[in-house]
Specification:
alpha/beta, 18% strand, globular
């Protein structure tokens, strides 16, 4: 039977003149190839992914990526269904200019849906049940085989729908292993993420 009479916890007041600091960001734990794969997965069951609407402007997308310190945003609809991914490469530089030229519009008129990487019906993703038993070395081997710096991880709900529960990022794995992450190269090759969302 659930406890219905809870005692309050001890409490106190902050003292005047005593500084109170925000916590320092905890660094990622050091891992090696034999560490559990879940230690290097960005877990969307605990950390809400940064999402954006396909109708948002590219300026809004760029601001969101800058504020959240990410290189990509998940594009979702009102039902939180994944529609695709928009990346820095798609919102800045020559790529949006080329898209605007192709569509016959001004660059400022582009929205996220014009430059995002679409999700397709077929997808190369990892399943959570397999990841739970895997090691970091297995994940790195998978990313190498897929030829992509990112791979999504899915589970299934009661109706057998895919539920996005995480992502593996080569940059994060490199950081946690104490290796130099070539983030510029990874950002430039992000278009390869279509291999994790579908061809």
């Amino acid at each position: 039977m659930p406890e219905t009479r809870f005692k309050p916890l001890p409490w106190t007041r902050l003292k005047r003149g005593v500084p109170c600091y925000l916590p320092r960001a905890a660094g990622h734990a050091s891992v090696d190839a034999n560490s559990p794969a879940l230690e290097v997965m960005t877990d969307y069951r605990r950390l809400t992914p940064v999402t954006i609407s396909r109708s948002a402007s590219l300026d809004d997308a760029n601001r969101a990526m800058t504020l959240c310190r990410v290189q990509y945003l998940l594009v979702t609809d009102e039902q939180q269904q994944l529609l695709g991914i928009v990346t820095e490469a798609g919102t800045r530089g020559n790529q949006p200019l080329a898209v605007a030229h192709r569509l016959g519009v001004r660059p400022g008129e582009l929205v996220v849906g014009n430059v995002m990487i679409d999700k397709h019906d077929e997808a190369d993703v990892l399943h959570l049940r397999d990841v739970a038993q895997a090691r970091v070395g297995n994940v790195v081997a998978t990313l190498k085989e897929l030829g992509t710096p990112f791979c999504l991880v899915v589970d299934h709900d009661e109706e057998d729908h895919h539920v996005l529960c995480g992502v593996f990022s080569l940059a994060r794995i490199q950081r946690q292993m104490g290796l130099e992450a070539h983030t510029e190269e990874i950002a430039q090759t992000f278009s390869q993420v279509v291999s994790t969302l579908g061809r």
